[in-house]
Amino acid sequence: MHLAKFANMTILEKIALALPAVESPARYMGGEANSVVKDHSQMLCRMAFVFPDKYEIGMSNNGIRILYHVINREPDLLCEVSFAPWDDMAKEMEKYDIPLYSYASYTPVRDFEVVGMTLQTELNFTNVPYVLDIARIPVWQKDRREEDPILVAGGPAMANPEPVVDFFDAFMIGDGEDMIIKFLRCVGEGRKAKLPRAQILENLSKIDGVYVPSLRPTVINEFGDIVPAEPAKGSYQNTNGVRRQFIPVMDPKNYPIKNLIANMQLVHNRFSVEVMRGCAQGCRFCQAGIWYRPCRELDPDDVLDIAKAGIKATGERELGLLSLSTADYKPVEGLTDSIIDDPFFDTVDVSLPSIRVNAFGETLAQKISALKGGRSATFAPETGSERIRKMINKTISDQDMYNAAEHAFSSGFNKIKLYTMIGFPTENEQDMEAFCNLIENLVKIGRKYLRGCQIAVSMGILIPKSFTGLQWAPFMDKETALKHIRYVRERFFRHPNVKVNWAGWETSFLEAIYSRGDRRLGPVIYAAYKKGIIFESDSYRFDFEKWQQVWEECGYDTSWVYRMREKDEVFPWDFIHAGTSKQYLRGEWEKAFKEDSAPVPNCKWGDCQKCGIPGFGAEIKLANDPVRHKAPSRTPEEIKKLVAERRPTQKSCHSYKITFKKTGLSRFLPHQNMLSFFERTFLCAGIPIKFSEGFSPKPRISNMGALPLGLETYCEVISVDLLQPLDISKENLPKIMAELSRPFPRGMEIVNIEPLKEKLSKHMPTAMIYSFTPESIPEGIMEKFESKTLPVVLNHRGQEINLNEHILGIQIAGGAIILKIKCNNMGTTASPFNIYAALMGVNFDPKKLDEASRRFLIKKIAMEW
Questions:
Q1: Looking at residue 1, what is its pLDDT?
Q2: In this structure, how many other beta carbons lie within 10 angstroms of the beta carbon of residue 3?
Q3: What one-character DSSP code corresponds to residue 238?
Q4: Across all residues in the chain, what is the average pLDDT?
Q5: Cα 263 from chain centroid (whole Å)
Q6: What is the three-state SS of 154-206?
Q7: In sequence order, which residues have a C-beta less than 8 Å from that of residue 597 and are 6 or more positions away?
Q8: Which of 127, 668, 798, 851 gives the lowest tally of CB atoms within 10 Å of its CB?
């Protein structure tokens, strides 16, 4: 089809043509519940927040949620989200002339004043030119015109933005809550004053934390690297560099409540509350420990208020209490007591990821175990060798690990996940032997309590990152790395209690290049994208052979990753002042190799190490125990008794028949996703659903079979069993239908609720009424129907569908063909797509519904009972 055919169609109309051909149409539907919709013409500045990876990864990201919230609460600013389309959708977007669009208003991303990206991992780098091409924005910063949007990036991978500077106009370095508002207002005021692009960029560079690479000169150092001509010098307050920004306090006003509700299952289906930002453990390999300093904690009363309001607004069944080390959160036990005390959380899985081993005491273990969802513990010893731990300042001992395991398994946990690494400088076979001994001893502890206990070991490979004590270290060569991985794998091959996973050396090698690379990587990244190397965060997509071809074709020498850096070498990222000084980090590098060096303590508790962060400890903000939600500290036995007493009995049951519609793009919502929205909405409304009995309880929600994907319906029916009655009086019915429809995607809405006296399966419809309005109605349809000479076609299973038997009536009205199709004993009909395609004379492969027929806008308008 020629693109001119679609010139007069809206993006929304063209998306409807594209979605039948893609694997996961829910990724691209947009219209998520809780979307912020504003009048674009009244905005000072609009930002399209593009996540350069799949929808289900991006919608799980807490950073996007926070920035979406802080921008949209400003009356004259707007943020809408967008995501990188998978290959199949990218082909359809090209076919139907669809540029990358925002999900709330279906506006082309290129029409926004600002396009922002968060780069959570270096493995998203090749997706940057990919999404810019699809958005039809010039890929290279130097090629952008006055009317093109300003492109800005942030996120943890921007601790070294140099590999991707050629693609962006600016970068935000550090916490974005305050910086993003200043950035958007600067662009908005500049556009309003009709300032040239160059002047707007110069104005942006004056905002603390904003890096405009085109305005910072570079030189080539003695090793051939492109580095800043003026590296950051002086103290954090008086530096000539770009200062990494950090917000002074964790303000509850910055926490989003009404998060976007995804149209499909995500990587992390949970409501998250960041209880603490920053970690000062001082691990020498850890970039996050430097990048997010100082430690700032959210008041636990605010944590609970935000969690309850957020779960009510989104219907999530899991609560994630997030930080780099949640057990280091000062009031963690008081917060846990308050969660246990509140019956609201009885049906919510509560997870505390990132628990430091020597903070995991017996009391905390027992309380976490008592929480729903607390059956596995995650620890990060990094290595089983105490020698290496001392080198990297991981201040835990083997005995700490054994104590934590004892607390976990004795409290009812059945699994411990260990995050570990190989590839440290000086690492040898003796260190790997110590690694294995640690695992074996953990198994012995676990088997005292449960013969089937599990130790799940995840082994990564050290990637020396910028702004760490090990940024001077070389990356481990392939032969040595694989030798160390094999040592552990072979020791636990087919071990019933141990499962070992490991990172691919090749992927880690690429990350090592990205993490400390310079501007020479821009053309290499672009060449890789043009060779089809995208979505590399998906391990199945990674192709090392293609990368080797790219490096060879671009003449890029990768051998530098094996080089130990010189003590006074200038690095590509040295224009950033992270707060922690380079002098301090160099001291940490030197201490790593001194056997007599003392462990560096966690400065969070008052022992300031003078790392360079201003304040000498005054900037650390710790929280105290809850006051408004204060709860008693209970024993495990008291907790179990309390939860048992509060658990709702499921004896009484109130059954309802709910009729709803799915129109517009919501017709592409898959069956299971649609059912999950009904479970979600009753949780939002605080109405308990009856669950089935047995090992894996399921909510008692029934329907009359899966609806064909892409079929618009105005009369779909489900039944639900509830533990309390609904007020569906004539006066209250509209109100409760609106409330229950609130978490649904745009186009999905409840239209009636009525009591159900018997199971839905006892009273099935006899026929469905469908409507389709074609461009023109084929001649002779009525005659063929009346003479019983309609065709016989095959369905996707190869079974015959005799249209003369299935079609009970045909009516032509207002240009539409209205069919009455008989139902089987399950209350469903043959696919209306097959039937209408046959009537329209469309040929299709019976094993795969033809795309042309799936693009028919067929409406299910009524049922006959």
A1: 47
A2: 10
A3: T
A4: 91
A5: 13
A6: ECHHHHCCHHHHHHCCEEECECCCCHHHHHHHHHHHHHHCCCCHHHHHHHHHC
A7: 591
A8: 798
pLDDT class for 358, splitting at 50, 70, 90?
A: low
DSSP 321-345: EESS-GGGSTTHHHHHHHHHH-GGG
Q: Which residue has the tokens 């009812």?
A: 412
* Residues in contact with 602: Cβ distance below 8 Å, sequence separation at least 6, in sequence order: 280, 281, 282, 328, 395
Q: How confident is the model over 711-730, as pLDDT tens digits?
A: 999 999 999 999 889 999 99
pLDDT digits (tens, 9 = 90+) for 505-550: 999 999 999 999 999 999 999 999 999 999 998 888 999 999 999 9
Q: What gap in Å lies between CA 130 and CA 706, rounded to an integer?
A: 35
Give the pairing of strands 296-297 and 276-277.
antiparallel
DSSP letter (8 states) at residue 4: G
Please answer whether residues 246 and 294 qualify as being in contact, where contact means their C-beta atoms are separated by less than 8 angstroms. yes
- The two three-digit tokens of residue 859, written as one number: 């409406």
Whether residue 98 has pLDDT greater than 50: yes
DSSP-based three-state secondary structure for 215: helix
Element of type H or E holding 480: helix 478-491
Q: Strand pairing of 77-83 and 45-51?
A: parallel
Please, what sign has the CA dihedral across residues 847, 851, 852, 855? positive
Structure token digits, residue 705: 């079979």
CA atoms of 61 and 459, how far apart (whole Å):
24
| Cβ neighbours for 287, distance < 8 A, ≥ 6 positions apart | 156, 159, 465, 466, 467, 468
Q: Quick one: pLDDT band at residue 413, thresholds 50, 70, 90?
A: confident
Q: Which helix (H) or strand (E) holds 367?
A: helix 362-370
DSSP summary character for residue 699:
B
Q: Which of 4, 106, 125, 102 is nearest to 53 (CA)?
A: 125
Alpha-carbon dihedral sign for residues 367, 371, 375, 376: negative
Q: What is the arithmetic mean of pLDDT over 804-820?
A: 93
How far is Cα 34 from Cα 266, in angstroms, rounded to an integer? 17
According to DSSP, the β-strands at 318-322 and 349-351 are parallel
Task: Count the Cβ atoms, other than its own, within 10 Å of residue 670.
Answer: 17
User: Rounded to whole angstroms, what are the CA distances from 230 to 215, 469, 575, 576?
Assistant: 12, 22, 7, 10
pLDDT at 356 over 80: no
Task: Return the structure tokens found at 615.
Answer: 């304040």
| Residue pair 273/320 in contact by the 8 Å Cβ criterion | yes
Residue 362, pLDDT score: 57
pTM summary value:
0.93
Contact present, 323 and 331 (Cβ < 8 Å): no
Q: 346 or 263: whose pLDDT is higher?
A: 263
